[in-house]
Each structure stands twice: as structure tokens, then as C-alpha cells.
Amino acid sequence: MTDQSVQPKKFQLRVNPAYQRVKDYLPAISCIVLLGVFSAVLIDGFMNINNIGAILLQASVLAVVAMGATIVVIAGDNGLDLSTGAVIIVGAMIGPNLRVGGRESLLAGFLLAMIIGAMIGCVNGLCVYYLKVPSLVMTMAMQGFVSGFCIFLTRSQLTVKIPKALASMNQVVFGPFRRMTLLVIALMVVLQLLLNRSKIGQLLLLTGNNREAARLNGIPVPAIAVGAFAACSALAAAAGMLLVGYSGLVHIDMTKDYPMQAMAAVIIGGTKTSGGVGSFVGSVMGAIVLILLNSILLAFNMPAGARTFIQGMVLLVILLINNRSAKLRQ
Amino acid sequence: MLATIKKLLKWTSLPAIVLFVLLLVYNAVINPGFMKQSTFYTFLLTSTPTLCVVMGVFASKIVGGIDISLGSLLSLINVTLAWMFTNTDLPTALVLAIGVLMGMTGGLINGISIGVLRVNPLLATFASSSVYGGLALWIMPNPGGFGVPQSLIRFTNRIHFGFIPSALIYLMIPLALWLIYALSVRVVAVYGIGGNEQCAYISGMPVMRIKMLAHIFGGLCAAVGAIAVTGLIASGDPTIGNEFSLKAVTAVVIGGVALSGGEGDIWGALFGGLFLTMILITIVSSKVPTFAQNFANATILFVGLLLAVLIKLVSEYKRTHPRKEVKNYD
């Protein structure tokens, strides 16, 4: 064709495509590498396979919650979910105690927990989308409501009978990888593929990018906005099951830090709070950064206050590096 | 007269006031001893710290941001004051001045990261809340510092001229500052930035400076609240302000301040705060058993929030869909 020869050359910035692809992960990757080297040099016996396995195991519960939170953040409109702490408790209460035909069934437990979690998430999503309650306030009120209800039901004495199948999630498969860790990695791969390759993932990204444009293009924005909250809560309920397998006991106060920690993991992972950009791999790496940092500080015998302080500083620095909005003067 | 009533019905603060009055009436009915002057003074005194934080959050919300670090800042100042009173011989006035300065510095740090460095307000203040809260826990891991001077304790509990409690004086410091500012022409810029930052910038409004000012004002509010807390509990408690921040955000939303900013006034925020503290009193006076208290609290909050949001939605709908006048051409 002769047309092609006349077309002007498109202006393109010369940026290495490989760099473009990993740019958002850079803070998380560099944090993991830095912390890893730092701990290997300074703390004896920190970098053995057992300890790495324990850190990965600890991170896997947070990673599942963080992946859920990622969906809500990607869906845009400054969405975030602070009710995950209570939903984890609900999942931990329902799932392991379920008996099907007198026998423990892990699959049925996961399913029921996730369905009930999704129902809580639906209420969140409906109120946020249709009643226009700010998601911060709505999910916080939901957190109080659900955890209050759990305390009311259990008289604040929660007993969980741990099924054998769930307790065996802690078994080592190979290297530092336990069963639960592998399960979470598989979940991460599936979700990431769904986000990048499937239609529903593309719809989620487009909705998050610009709600008005998405609506005008015939994308079912309400369904996706509400569904994001439902998916987030379903994942949080599944994380509750994992938490029971990991820690063996559940207490109402145990999970109250999870929502904010998950949010921090999402940000470290390079997901933009404006919506439309993000990845699950990043959020999992963010969760690993947080847990790694915490266990290094614990190894140094830091008091609780100092640990919180340093975590806050690290988060502030990462925010300054990768989460600044555009200049007003354009 | 009719115009005044119509204006009153459109007032954004109305839902919060109605909710507060409802709870007040309920309390007066079930508890005959409630309508005494002394009960009222105690109520005002115990809700002073919350109300101070509410005013700070209001200021940050009106410029389109949010500040969830003020509760932690309040704890930090409270702990520092108690520590300085116990371990140093500085005069009381100097210590209090240092506290106020700390509050303004904390607000300035928030203001710089949000206004100048353009980090998302929610995330920036989340990070700084871990920094402040961690510092507070570091300085004083457990509640303590019982060297608070008698003069401060007595002043906090005193009632001047028989009808002005000190709580009112504490509240009047930030309130008067805001009201004086609201009288000046400059307040237009504050609401303008909340309404549309880009337009405000193009119109030549000092966006950066006003955002920083709003956060410094928030820090000042936290400092005043911290001084009131120190006088109230006569010691330092590193976790006392933890729940204030998110509570204050809920109060501000119930008080009719728009999510995106630029709408609402301080009276709504204050009555929202009073409504929240009134819930606690209501639960105690209706003799709800301990295990159900969290649930009852969350339920009332939930219902209040939904009511406030619904009223706002309806009034907004009426504004955007005015009733068409039926003209009779016959």
C-alpha cells in the first residue's frame, strides 16, 4: 500500500518495554531485596528455609485479603474496604464449623464462607454505589456492625474446632513452600490472568479508569462496582478459613489491623488509588514486604510502638515514590 | 417565614441535628435524671476530645481531602504532655505551648505531603497516623504519667460563672478560629477548592497554601483535644485517640459534609459528633448487656448513617429535578 509510506512517524519515547512492565513493581521488589539482604547480613539464621517458609505462610493470609482489596481499589471511585477484618472473623466462624452429612468438608466450608462474605460485600457495594455513602465510612460502619454481631452471637467467646484438612495446610511441600502458600500463589496466578486476559478483568479495569466513559460504552458499571465489593469480601472470608488453619485459634481483636494492612500492601504493590491500574502480583509482594519488615523488626526486639513507627515511615516513603497525583498546572 | 423554613429544610446540618435531638428525647424519657445541668456538663466534657477531632477532620474534608491521623496525633500529644509533666520541671504553660506546637507541626507534615507533594490524602494520613501512633506507643508503652498538675485537672472540670464549663472553652478555641475565618472572604477559596480543585487553581486561588492551612488547623484541633484529655484522665494513654479518627470521619459524613468536599458546615459536623457520643450514653442508660453493647452501638450508628445519607439524597434529587409548574393556558 502506498498510504503507509505517507503516514507520519509516530512520536515515541524510547523506554525499554521491560522497564515499563515492571515499573509499578519496583518499590515492592526493591523493598524485598533490600530487606532480604539486610536481614541476611545482620541477623543470624534469619534466611534459612524454615524461617522464609514461616514468613511466606504468615504473608499468605494477608495476601488473600490484599488481593480482595485490590479488586475494590481497581474498580475506582476512591473505593476501599475496611470491613475485611470483620468478614475474616465471619469466615473463620462459619467455614471450619460446617459439617456436611456429619463429616467435615473443606470445600463446602470455603464455599459457604465465601457466599456469606459476598453477601456482606454486596450490602457494602449497594450502599456505596446507590446511596453514595463514602466507601471508607460505609465499610467502617459495616465492620462495627458485623463484628458487634459476632460478639453478640458468641458472647465474645469464639470457639473453633479446627478440621484436620485445614490444619494440614501448614505442611511443607518443598523448600520453603507450605500447602497454604502454594494455594495462595495459585490463586494469585488465576486472578492475575483473569484481570489481564479475560473479558471481566478488562471490564473491571475500564470501569475503574473512567466510570462515565465505561457507562457510555455500555459496560454494566453498577454490576461491576457492586461485584468488586462482593469479590473482596468473599476473598476476605476465605482468608478467615486460612487464618484458622494457620493460627489454630481466632479472636475478635486479632483481625482488626487487617483492613489497613491490606490497604498498605495494595499501595506498596503499585496499584493506583485513582483506580483502573493495578495488579494482584504487586499486592502479594506488598504483603510479603509488610510481613518481612515486621519480622525483621521483631528479630531486633523492637517495641511495638517502634515497629508501627517504622512501618508508617516506610509506607510514607513508598507513597512519595509511586503514588503522587498529577500537577495542578498542566 | 415560609422561606426561612424552606431554607432550614435544605440545611445540610439538619439530619445530624434531628438524630441528636431524637436520642436526647429518648434519653430524657427513659432516664428522668438525665435532664440535669450536671449530666449535661459531664456529657459535654467527655465528648470534647471527639468534637475537637471532628472539627479538624471537618476542615480537611471541606478542602476535598481527609485526615485520619488526628486521633493518633491526639494520643501522641497526650502522652508527651503527661511525660513532660511527670519527668520535667517545666512550667505548665510552657508544656501546653509545646503541645500546641507539636499539634501544628503534625498538621504541617500532613499538609506538606498532601498539599505540596500531592499524595492521596487518605493514604498520606494513614501512613502518618502509624507514625504518630507508633511514636506515642514508643514514648509510653502503657498508660501512665500521673504527674499531671492539679491546676490543669481542676481547670478542666471547673464551671466558670456558674454556667460556662471549661469544656466549652476548649471547644471554643478551634470553633472561634474557624468561625472568624468563615466570616472573611477567603472562605470562598476553601469551599472552592473542595468543589473543584482545578477550577480553583485556574481562578488564582492559593490551593497549596489553603490545603496546608486546613491541615495545620486540624493539628491544632488535635492539640486542644489532647489538652482536654490530659485534664480529663489526669494521665497519658497511648491508645486513647485511636478510635477518634474514624469516628470523626463518620460524624462529619452524618453532619452533611460532602464526600468530595466543598459543601456542608461545621455545625453539622459538631452535631454528628454529639450524636455519636450520645449513642454510648444511650446504650449505657438503657442497660444493654455488655456482650450486646458493640452490636447496639454499631446498629444505631448504621441506621443513623443511612438516614442521614437518604435525607441528603432526597434533597439533592429535589434540587436536580425541580417540580415543573403546571401552567394553565385556558
User: Kindly, what is the distance between the CA atoms of the first and last residues of chain A, rounded to a whole number of angstroms?
Assistant: 39 Å
Largest pleated sheet of chain A: 2 strands, antiparallel
The CATH topology name of chain B reads ABC transporter involved in vitamin B12 uptake, BtuC
CATH topology of chain A: ABC transporter involved in vitamin B12 uptake, BtuC
Oligomeric state, counting identical vs distinct chains: heterodimer
Brief sketch in words of this structure:
Chain A is 68% helix and 3% strand.
Notable traits:
heterodimer; A: 330 residues; mainly alpha; ABC transporter involved in vitamin B12 uptake, BtuC; two-stranded antiparallel ribbon; 4 strands; globular; B: 330 residues; two-stranded antiparallel sheet
Describe the protein.
The complex is a heterodimer of chains A (330) and B (330). Helices cover 68% and strands 3% of the residues of chain A. Chain A is mainly α and 330 residues long. Chain A has one domain: ABC transporter involved in vitamin B12 uptake, BtuC, CATH 1.10.3470. In chain A, the strands form two sheets. A two-stranded antiparallel sheet of chain A has the order 1-2. In chain A, strands 3-4 form a two-stranded antiparallel sheet. The longest helix of chain A is centred in the C-terminal third of the chain and has 27 residues. The mean pLDDT of chain A is 84. By secondary structure, chain B is mainly alpha-helical. Chain B has one domain: Orthogonal Bundle (ABC transporter involved in vitamin B12 uptake, BtuC), CATH 1.10.3470. At the A-B interface, α7, α13 and α15 of A face α6, α10, α12 and α14 of B.
